[in-house]
Amino acid sequence: xxxxxxxxxxxxxxxxxxxxxxxxxxxxxxxxxxxxxxxxxxxxxxxxxxxxxxxxxxxxxxxxxxxxxxxxxxxxxxxxxxxxxxxxxxxxxxxxxxxxxxxxxxxxxxxxxxxxxxxxxxxxxxxxxxxxxxxxxxxxxxxxxxxxxxxxxxxxxxxxxxxxxxxxxxxxxxxxxxxxxxxxxxxxxxxxxxxxxxxxxxxxxxxxxxxxxxxxxxxxxxxxxxxxxxxxxxxxxxxxxxxxxxxxxxxxxxxxxxxxxxxxxxxxxxxxxxxxxxxxxxxxxxxxxxxxxxxxxxxxxxxxxxxxxxxxxxxxxxxxxxxxxxxxxxxxxxxxxxxxxxxxxxxxxxxxxxxxxxxxxxxxxxxxxxxxxxxxxxxxxxxxxxxxxxxxxxxxxxxxxxxxxxxxxxxxxxxxxxxxxxxxxxxxxxxxxxxxxxxxxxxxxxxxxxxxxxxxxxxxxxxxxxxxxxxxxxxxxxxxxxxxxxxxxxxxxxxxxxxxxxxxxxxxxxxxxxxxxxxxxxxxxxxxxxxxxxxxxxxxxxxxxxxxxxxxxxxxxxxxxxxxxxxxxxxxxxxxxxxxxxxxxxxxxxxxxx
Length: 594
What we know:
The two termini are 76 Å apart. By secondary structure, this protein is of the alpha+beta class. The chain has eight helices and 32 strands. The longest helix is centred in the last third of the chain and has 29 residues, at 451-479. The strands form ten sheets. Strands 11, 12, 14, 15 and 16 form a five-stranded antiparallel sheet that branches. Strands 21, 23, 25, 26 and 27 form a five-stranded antiparallel sheet that branches. Strands 1-3-6-5 form a four-stranded antiparallel sheet, with no helix packed on it.
């Protein structure tokens, strides 16, 4: 048995080695051109590339061109860590004889006695340019060999349908770029946006307008349009450092290059956002677009009075999960219901948001009996069928085993979404009011030597030093310009936080007040002007003051929420969470700032 296993292992090892050897022995022989369209007074480069060393190389005739250079031969032979890589290239530089469309015929090579040929390539020659371009001119290199492209996954989406925007930088072969940096980030007005961070920049091979290029993906963003009509996707701009060849050479004969800085911008793209159809739109539709599942569950169905249970409304699936409101749970007034706890478990991929959102209600029954929680309906727009779909949950019956008996008929229980109960009056409701007077005679009391007498006499004398101390402290406080600015900012922050709290439920008023509170707080604590209120400046100053990174990120997230609130539907629960988060973050900055 062991001998059979050994033979099997040896057989599989030999088979694998044979397959690898066969793959590595595959011969590749192909022709490449620098461009497939050129002017009559331009030059064309043709490379014949092979991965095995061959003999008896026979080039095509080039009858429609004049050979102005070549053949130049280059060989590359190296070990990449897995196998040995070999590349051999024959290069020719050609000048076209006339205008027209011409074919560069096949070249031939023999490898180990076997003949291999390239595929024909078609090239179009146009009229001569009035001023021939210098191929080593930085502007010419930028125009011909480098392209910044904006790719949009869909040009005509529905409202709240996700689209993906990808910014790519294409660079032609043998074009040198030593560095690039982003100088202007795109703004997505009218969209909810989520950037997808790639782990490192990866250089890939691809094609641009039918020709071979290398490219890198600079930025990938998922957008959810929040308005209908034509919306503009702004371009990205880069500062690029080019390696430009010169006419000088080093002592080894290699051409010396020099650096040149140029700015390149992608083209502006426009998408036409379609409105959701009115035909068939349910009355309870709140803007959900995608593919969802809906469920309403209770943690228990049987319990005693004054015990609690949890009722959860859950929506899961793929779509604009953060951009619509969940339906409300309605219960009989005999059940006390608290404000729901909102939870989100959502991740954003290149295809949009995916995950779940939920509202959890805490319910406490007050009376014995069976109390039905009516069914809840949820509707959404399905992008696959382009129709509205509605899902209705099943009724939930809460069975209260022990507790006081409800006075009314159980079959006519009033339904309420607040859980408030009627106040029951009894006969002793005014027992706290006294109905008998208890008067005392004050005629024998005199003013002289009374506590009021001595207080009136000594009080002004004691108030003089206190007034002097108060005056000195007030003068010191008025002289403290920085302290006064901070105190004024704190007062304004408290004022606007109070206004924000009063405006809970009114989206625009709430976030305007919240943003003013945060800005006034920053101006006082960091001693900066309104013109310096940029995210980069705020982050830099907070780090210098010793504020922890996670607190700074929380502060930036709150400011971002204030900006996004104009374009996204916000629930009262989210406003309450942002308010609490703002107060907590301000408190943490006060404790950590130096």
